[in-house]
Amino acid sequence: MAEEIQKKMQKELEIFSGVQKEYKKAVSQKQQLDSQLNENKAVKEELLLLKKDAEVYKLIGPVLVKQDLEEAKQNVNKRMEYITKEVRRTEGHISALENKQDAIQTNLNKLKNNLGNLKISV
């Protein structure tokens, strides 16, 4: 019986380890998205300071290409919308992983208690 509980604990620990890795990856991804969003907010603020006749250039590979100011503003807004959606999606994923970690931790605690109770009764 103790061996069976230990095997279950080992399996739960492996699952928990995998979930932790996925969680760290998701948190890292959210941090990257937050950074991109902040960068785009700064660009948007800079674009708002420009006059209507200002020249705006977009870096495409090694070349600067002239771009219409309104088009540049629209592109930044679209990027910000996309990044915001990705942040929300990632936050949902992180929340789900936290719940999964909690459930696995609860299972591990139960198995640990069962194992402890077995050893005491022996």
- What does the average pLDDT come to? 93
Structural class estimated from helices and strands: mainly alpha
Strand order, main sheet: write it out: 1-2
Q: Helical content, roughly?
A: over 70%
Topology of this protein?
Blueprint: H1 2-49, E1 56-60, E2 63-67, H2 69-121
Antiparallel strand pairs: 1-2
Helix pairs in contact: 1-2
Subunit structure: Heterohexamer of two PFD-alpha type and four PFD-beta type subunits.
GO molecular function: protein-folding chaperone binding; unfolded protein binding
Protein name: Probable prefoldin subunit 6
Short précis:
The chain is mainly α and 122 residues long. Helices cover 83% and strands 8% of the residues. InterPro entries: PFD_beta-like (IPR002777), Prefoldin (IPR009053).
Describe the protein in words.
By secondary structure, the chain is mainly alpha-helical. Helices cover 83% and strands 8% of the residues. It contains two helices and two strands. The chain has helices at 2-49, 69-121; strands at 56-60, 63-67. It has a two-stranded antiparallel ribbon with strand order 1-2. Helix 1 runs antiparallel to helix 2. The longest helix has 53 residues, at 69-121. It is rod-shaped, with a radius of gyration of 25 Å. It starts with a helix and ends with a helix. The model has no long low-confidence stretch (mean pLDDT 93).
Properties at a glance:
122 residues; mainly alpha; two-stranded antiparallel ribbon; 2 helices
